[in-house]
Known about the structure:
Layout: H1 4-35, H2 42-68, H3 77-101, H4 107-114, H5 117-127, H6 135-153, H7 160-185, H8 194-216, H9 218-223, H10 233-263, H11 266-287, H12 294-321, H13 344-348, H14 353-360
Helix pairs in contact: 1-10, 1-11, 2-3, 2-8, 2-10, 3-7, 3-8, 4-7, 4-11, 5-7, 6-12, 10-11, 11-12
Amino acid sequence: MACPTQFLCRALRTVGLVLFYYVFSIGITFYNKWLMRDFHFPLFMTLVHLVIIFSFSTLTRFAMQCWTGKPRVTLPWKVYLSKVAPTALATTLDIGLSNWSFLFITISLYTMTKSSAVLFILFFSLVFKLEEPNPFLILVVLLIASGLFMFTLKSTQFNLEGFIMVLLASFIGGIRWTLTQVLMQKAELGLQNPIDTMYHLQPLMFLGLFPLFLLNEGLSVSTTEKLFRVSELSHLLYSLVTLSVGGMLAFGLGFSEFLLVSRTSSLTLSIAGIFKEVCTLLLAVEFMGDKMNTVNWLGFAVCLSGISLHVGLKTYYSKGNGPMVRQLPVRDNPGLELPLLQTKEDYCEDTNDEEEQEILY
């Protein structure tokens, strides 16, 4: 049994990692919404973020290689285009549509609608046979769907176009995370480390989003006084700095999520995500002028109940009370699963101390 000092240190570490995750997760939501008030080019913003994430991933891989003395994985072109491209396309559409929606909807509606991603992750996990069917899943789906319906039914700041964008992003996000799981479970690809996965995804994501950017924002960006027709250098520097800060927040979010899961568990990430949504809504009402009535709050509570039930079920089945998650039949399966579906026992079952040190460094 761990001594009180060890327990306290572990608890403080967990709280610190959760707060570190909150800074980036909540920060990028409010930052993107704030930026979209004056900078109406969400696709261009996303492209800049992709470049920054790729740059930081490259630097991190180089540092890891210098520290461990082991070369990082680099996929051949044939495997890269055939295996990574579908995941990159789904990720691009998810992030692009999410950022685009900030032009139309409030943070509270975005947060609530984005929480429906759990439904689509469950759906595609069943389609790809990554999870066993379970009658309780029906209750989870009904609670989340009912909560979302109640939230949007009486919303005074509802925008159909933005709502459809976020809902579509959540649907594509279900495909994205399912494909990401399949990609990271293919041990022969060597993409178990999320930094390597981010490094390989960003170029294809950029190429996939660039044509959509040209069609929708290309002419507007090329003629805007905020960038290419700027009259003062200070205005250009301001635009570049604000875009760069968003890119660093995007990279920090991915890194903080992985750090929280690797040092605690994805169950902790799921529970922290529930409270993060509560904090986001409260901050949006307090500082961004979002309006929520009694029916909206009740719908939010019903939706959180569904998400909490899902987390509770994962905890129950992880203790050997029944099968819930089915692993992919691949060689040397590292035991990685979707962050929203994984538990501590699943993550640590086949991971030794040496491998964990290599990933963390």
